[in-house]
Write a structure and sequence with these properties.
Elements (H helix, E strand, L loop, with lengths): L2 H9 L4 E10 L5 E9 L15 E4 L4 E9 L2 E8 L2 E4 L3 E4 L13 H13 L2 H8 L3 H16 L10 E10 L3 E8 L5 E6 L3 H11 L1 H4 L4 E4 L3 H10 L4 E4 L1 H25 L3 H8 L2 H5 L7 H13 L1 H16 L3 H17 L4 H12 L1 H10 L4 H17 L5 H12 L10
Parallel strand pairs: 2-5, 8-11, 11-12
Antiparallel strand pairs: 1-2, 3-6, 4-5, 6-7, 8-9, 9-10
């Protein structure tokens, strides 16, 4: 095998001519292998934006280096001239090279490997393994994701979608995510959680494809419902059962805290302390209760009728989604009536909320849809944030979300 062909196989590069090699010091002071190359005849003097062959303008800033896959334990670089060309469409730009993406100082094979590693392990460890920086990895992931996302229409064929929000950093910094119920993949994400952010999704989707949506699942956020009604009025909005049951759990927890505070204010510290430590017995699914928690629940039933009634209403809310369409609607009507007359402020407020969302809850019961796909994606993103030890920008978080949850993770070079 010829030496040039061997190097191409080892480094995962094509369409270049080797001119020489040598060992030099890299920026960190370590020895590195430098291979001097040039694009072959068919790939020289092309626009780095559109790939069109253009007239050479000048030699640019001279020769450049691109980090490529390591040669054993040594870092390896490709070095080549970087002339500029005059493109009729894009003006004066640096000529494209066949081994790297436009604007990158890494070869395509190196970037694909780096992106795969970032999807599998903490970025800090990937940076050490690849002998590069966190910032460089961020740029690599963004370029790889942009290229892979541009290779197909991820918004094509959407019929049933889930819309949710996810915090990517402390300080109320959120992104909005859209998940395809049929494929289970993340298909769109952008920074923000408001009407303007969601309208960007429908702008990208287009009026014709928005008209094909049949179902949208979401939580009770009015900004989601309003934009869906505005841009896809034919789509049926289904409320997520998890969030509905969560409303009941939150009402019960507020009631528990209020009763404990009232007992404490009345000098009944012992009873207040007992109620304070009943939270898990009250909010857990009954079949998951431990024997001790079942005993606690029995004590509440015997000694605190208001708290126990709140618990029963919370459980009826959960049962709505276990009883089928007609049974669930009957239980919902009964719960609204019961909670409205309960003289428990927390559950009277819950009754008003359920009454306001009754049609959307009926839609959930009729169509048997939940936002579990989107919530599952959020769980993956939370794990991603933990593994990466946080992100410095929303763009980096969205790129990684697309890479891992959007099915865009590249294959390892040569695999």
């Amino acid at each position: 095998m010829r030496k040039s062909k061997l190097w191409k196989k080892l480094l995962g590069v094509e369409h270049l001519v080797f001119e020489g090699d040598g060992v030099e010091k890299d920026p960190g002071g370590r020895e590195a292998l430098v291979l001097r190359v040039r694009p072959d005849h068919g790939h020289r003097d092309r626009c780095s934006r559109c790939g069109r062959r253009c007239r050479r303008r000048d030699e640019g800033d001279g020769r450049r280096r691109w980090r490529t896959l390591d040669a054993g334990v040594a870092a390896c670089y490709l070095e080549a001239a970087a002339p500029r060309v005059s493109c009729p469409a894009h003006g004066v730009v640096v000529a494209a090279v066949p081994w790297a993406r436009p604007g990158s100082r890494f070869t395509t094979a190196f970037e694909d490997q780096a992106a795969w590693l970032c999807a599998q392990m903490p970025w800090a460890k990937a940076a050490v393994l690849l002998r590069t920086t966190w910032r460089s990895l961020q740029g690599i992931v963004e370029r790889v994701t942009a290229e892979l996302a541009g290779g197909g229409d991820r918004l094509g064929g959407l019929r049933r979608i889930g819309i949710d929000e996810k915090a990517w950093r402390k300080g109320h910094r959120y992104i909005t995510v859209v998940v395809d119920h049929d494929s289970g993949r993340l298909v769109w994400a952008a920074e923000g959680r408001n009407k303007d952010t969601l309208r960007k999704f429908f702008d990208d989707l287009g009026e014709e494809r928005a008209g094909l949506l049949t179902h949208v699942t979401a939580d009770g956020a009015a900004w989601i419902h309003d934009v869906v009604a505005e841009r896809a009025p034919q789509a049926v909005i289904c409320l997520d059962p998890f969030h509905i049951v969560k409303w009941g759990t939150e009402a019960l927890d507020k009631l528990r805290r209020r009763l404990a505070a009232e007992l404490r204010a009345g000098g009944k510290e012992g009873q207040a302390s007992t109620i304070k430590h009943t939270r898990w017995a009250l909010v857990k699914n009954p079949r998951d209760l431990s024997p001790d928690q079942r005993g606690t629940l029995a004590q509440i039933a015997a000694g605190n009728s208001r708290l126990y009634r709140g618990y029963l209403m919370k459980e009826q809310l959960r049962e709505i989604f276990q009883s089928g369409t007609e049974g669930g609607k009957t239980l919902l009507a009964g719960l609204i009536s019961w909670a409205s007359r309960s003289r428990i402020p927390e559950f009277a407020g819950l009754a008003r909320t359920l009454k306001g969302f009754r049609q959307l809850i009926w839609n959930t019961l009729d169509h048997h849809l939940s936002n579990a796909r989107a919530e599952g994606t959020n769980t993956q993103l939370a794990a991603l944030t933990t593994r990466a030890r946080g992100f410095h920008s929303a763009a980096a978080f969205i790129a990684m979300a697309n890479l891992t949850s959007g099915g865009l993770c590249p294959d390892l070079p040569g695999r």
